[in-house]
């Protein structure tokens, strides 16, 4: 694999750290800024809102910028957002900082996925995309626990200062290691939106929303389940979250080769496995060793869905792959927010601490149903299965794609 993928993975590590670390720092932020923990929770929503807004907007605005310059610029915005968060004097400006940090998230992964696919030969594109996402999973093993501990020891501002430093390192790595790649041919916003409105693309995005919501219906309340049901001490929660991250990494490692070999079967299998594992967790949560094994499995099969979902929408929107990939990141964040909300409804209805596991299983099953319907509708249709990008300088079309059609 090209060294350029390392630069993308470093960037993904920083993004993953700042995205998830806030969940563990909410009590610290609330105490320091004189607000309640539920109110501090809006900081998580602010970041997600930034992703949803920034993904299509920044991708469209940067469509004519060469890819390396675009990636560096996006990481610069990310770094500025984390620095603003660290220096925010009050809660309102911290909200602004979190929103700013989230803006480049989706656009970065959208551009980065297309760049990763263009760096390798045909037949290995999904592996390249999965390598970039590997930085995101490692962030959940190392970055988030370490940054949470740092914030608890030296104050939450120190966490965002460190993430800003990671952003600077990522910018240097991107500038040094990413080769010169021209922007894709500008086809006009109307044509790009038309490509994004393709039935298969929309079904792919809907699969992301439902399928990934199943994971976050559980992950959002995993700490409470482990303490209230399984019987772990609060000090053991970082270990449980790290195990979830290990599962995510295992899933990411498997996702690339499997998606390159057979895209839709990998997607069907991972969503079906997710529904089954989440159902099993309703029962295994009662036993410590079984609960820990299941946590690893949820992370693994859950993250196994990400690469085929990303490659699917990129392939189907082959005239606007970057916009499609960025929009899929918006869909992931809608799934995060939606899954947490639906899981919370089950808890508010007093269905028990493990009720989000069954809610998550239903959401994963709905995602599988949408994916199967999309696959059936796609049978017999012409599928180029290529991410097309035209060099404006040389006038040469480069076709890359991942996974066998249908």
Rounded average pLDDT: 84
Oligomer status: single chain
Helix and strand element order: HHHHHHHHHHHHHHHHEE
**Percentage of helical residues?**
over 70%
How do the strands of the widest beta sheet line up side by side? 1-2
Shape: globular
β-strand percent reads under 5%
**End-to-end C-alpha gap:** 27 Å
Structural class, by secondary structure, is mainly alpha
Helical run tally: 16
β-strand number: 2
Query: Which ranges are low-confidence, i.e. pLDDT below 50, for 5 or more consecutive residues?
Result: 384-406
Major β-sheet, in short? 2 strands, antiparallel
C-alpha Rg, in Å? Answer: 20 Å
Description of the structure:
The protein has a two-stranded antiparallel ribbon with strand order 1-2. The protein is built from 16 helices and two strands. It has helices spanning 4-33, 37-40, 42-61, 67-87, 91-118, 125-154, 156-177, 189-196, 199-219, 222-230, 237-261, 263-284, 288-304, 306-316, 321-348, 355-378, and strands spanning 387-390, 397-400. 58% of the residues are buried. Mean pLDDT is 84; it is low at 384-406.
What characteristics describe this protein?
globular; two-stranded antiparallel sheet; 406 residues; mainly alpha; 16 helices
Lay out the secondary structure.
Blueprint: H1 4-33, H2 37-40, H3 42-61, H4 67-87, H5 91-118, H6 125-154, H7 156-177, H8 189-196, H9 199-219, H10 222-230, H11 237-261, H12 263-284, H13 288-304, H14 306-316, H15 321-348, H16 355-378, E1 387-390, E2 397-400
Antiparallel strand pairs: 1-2
Helix pairs in contact: 1-3, 1-5, 1-6, 1-7, 3-5, 3-15, 4-5, 4-7, 5-6, 5-15, 6-7, 6-11, 6-14, 9-12, 9-14, 9-15, 9-16, 11-12, 11-13, 11-14, 12-13, 12-14, 12-16, 14-15, 15-16
